[in-house]
Design goal:
Layout: E1 2-3, E2 15-19, E3 25-29, H1 33-36, E4 42-46, E5 49-50, E6 54-59, E7 64-72, E8 84-90, E9 113-116, E10 119-129, E11 132-137, H2 141-151, E12 177-179, H3 191-199, E13 203-209, H4 219-222, E14 229-233, H5 235-246, E15 251-254, H6 256-267, E16 275-279, E17 294-298, H7 305-309, H8 316-328, E18 332-333, E19 339-343, E20 351-352, E21 357-358
Parallel strand pairs: 1-18, 2-19, 4-13, 4-15, 5-12, 15-17
Antiparallel strand pairs: 2-3, 6-7, 6-9, 7-8, 8-11, 9-10, 10-11, 13-14, 14-16, 17-19, 20-21
Length: 371
Amino acid sequence: MKAAVLPIQRPRDARLLVVDAEGRLAARARADLPALLLPGDVVVANDAATLPASLGGRHLPSGAAIELRLAGRTALGAPDEAQHFSAVVFGEGDFHIRTEDRPAPPLLAPGDRLALGPLEAEVLRTLGHPRLVEVRFAGDADTVIAGIARHGRPVQYAHLAEPLALWDVWTRIAGPPVAFEPPSAGFVLDWQLLDVFRRRGIGFATLTHAAGLSSTGDPALDARLPFDEPYRLPPSTIAAIDATKARDGRIVAIGTTVARALEHAAARAGGLRAGDGIATNRLGRASGLRAVDVLVSGTHEPGTSHHELLRAFVGERTLARIDAALEGGGWRTHEFGDSVWLERARIQPRWNLNTATPARRFGQVRTTLPA
């Protein structure tokens, strides 16, 4: 695979690798996405807008230059959500240096003050790693959000040479500004495509999920990804999913954040319900999918948490063939790359979303995936 070098959300030559429920692969144009959907399916996308979550500044006790990347929050809509964040801290430098080559920050300790442009923050504690901290910003919520908006930049990696603008990382359906990196699978969407869905009887619904960092540059921290991420499921989305399941339509998740939120909610006592939650789950080979039938995602490199999530949909040999096809065909990876369509393997059970138990009409089936 190769990295996209320009921040073009919907390039005309974007490709879509289609993997059906039998593990068969086919290369299509990404513009063919509507042809893969059936009347009665519902497409679910993440409507989170992306914060300019990279904040340059100084560690006041040492005077050293740092970059603080906001990485998480405890809830959506909590009164103090704009003051408290978890964050990954880097030493001097910027996105032009590969993340894994960035120097570490000075030693961080509770009580340390950080000057971040117009903002000031205090380190409250480290979170099991010297570069992962909980910080509290000074000022009220409006002051903090305004300061982040003025001073922050989108989180960016070295494969893109030019600085990203905020509009580069907002999807066409962006709403609440709660994501730390873009829910970039949603770049496939535009209003014309949504109109096609409507005319063809394909449902569309949204949820809000605070998409987190995809890389920290540190192997020990990367092993903990994805971090816990809050989400919100509107009643209208749950109603659309329930109606779709009742008529044996498919739930098509646009992106790993959507899949993670829906599967976390579906696994809770009582099954899939509207409301807020915090996704603590990690989807992978051992996961039994309860909600999502199809995943539309970007292409992901082996070894990343996003790549590991794909194992919930396909077996090991199929995933190896997918990786080989993407690598051999020079498909574009990262957030402005090409896409994949993954139907979950047919051996996966269907679930009763109101009880979080396997639906009886499908009988006893194995929950492990075939090759």
